[in-house]
């Protein structure tokens, strides 16, 4: 029974979560474009919003990139420049710093939503729920650090990487690589997958509309009217 639940949670659920994440986002964009927004409340307590938002977004972007590169890079590739124990220590230090940064920012944003009556009145249950889920996920991620310090040989990190790589390459034995991995790591993975499920039904969809192309926009030529305008 335990093996079946592990296979369901870590072998099948990842595909269900990603399918809902992609298809749900597409359906929402096609049918509910007016709800496709971040739901900003920047007119209220603007300073706390700006500080918290910057800390949160800087931290979360670093964590997303770090998790993706760290989990999906084969050991044969990163082994050319760094050993598994060194990679483990790098992940603890850099991920811990980014996690703390993100945690402080998200705590400020959640506090603002919960304890300012005006902001809470304009916040939906989904707004508060997604912030709370992200907060718990960050706490779980930070809790993995003490456990990671207990196995600096990188063995658990390698198991987690093998699990992620087997999921991405559609190999059926992905869940078996998490045998013996601590509960806090599994809880972190499960809640992370659940956030993928919640993504299309929350304000997180605005991530798809991030103005990435703005940095690569062409220059604008502005012509002034008046003294410098050409006289006909």
Largest sheet: none
- Helix-strand pattern, N to C? HHHHHHHH
- Percentage of residues in DSSP E strands: under 5%
The end-to-end distance, rounded to whole angstroms, is: 87 Å
Proportion of helical residues: 55-70%
Give the beta-strand count. Answer: 0
Shape: globular
Question: Would you write up a description of this structure?
Answer:
It is built from eight helices and no strands. By secondary structure, the protein is an all-alpha fold. α1 runs parallel beside α8, α4 runs antiparallel to α6 and α6 packs antiparallel against α8. The model has no long low-confidence stretch (mean pLDDT 87).
Short description:
With 232 residues, the protein is an all-alpha fold. It is 66% helix and 0% strand.
Which terms summarize this structure?
0% strand; 232 residues; mainly alpha; 66% helix
Topology:
Elements: H1 2-31, H2 46-72, H3 75-78, H4 84-115, H5 117-121, H6 125-149, H7 155-168, H8 183-198
Helix pairs in contact: 1-8, 2-4, 4-6, 6-8
């Amino acid at each position: 029974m335990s093996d079946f639940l592990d296979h369901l949670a870590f072998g099948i659920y990842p595909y269900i979560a990603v399918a809902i994440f992609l298809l749900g986002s597409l359906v929402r964009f096609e049918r509910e474009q007016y709800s496709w927004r971040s739901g900003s409340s920047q007119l209220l307590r603007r300073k706390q919003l700006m500080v918290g938002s910057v800390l949160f977004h800087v931290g979360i972007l670093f964590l997303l990139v770090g998790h993706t590169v760290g989990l999906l890079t084969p050991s044969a590739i990163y082994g050319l420049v760094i050993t598994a124990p060194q990679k483990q220590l790098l992940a603890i230090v850099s991920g811990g710093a980014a996690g703390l940064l993100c945690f402080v920012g998200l705590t400020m944003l959640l506090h603002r939503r919960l304890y300012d009556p005006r902001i809470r009145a304009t916040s939906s249950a989904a707004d508060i729920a997604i912030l709370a889920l992200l907060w718990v996920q960050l706490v779980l991620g930070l809790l993995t650090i003490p456990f990671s310090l207990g196995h600096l040989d990188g063995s658990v990190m390698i198991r987690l990487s093998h699990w992620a790589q087997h999921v991405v390459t559609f190999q059926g034995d992905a869940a078996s690589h998490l045998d013996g991995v601590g509960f806090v790591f599994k809880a972190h993975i499960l809640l992370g997958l659940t956030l993928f499920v919640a993504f299309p039904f929350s304000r997180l969809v605005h991530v798809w509309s991030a103005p990435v192309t703005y940095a690569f926009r062409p220059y604008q030529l502005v012509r002034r009217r008046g003294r410098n305008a050409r006289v006909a």
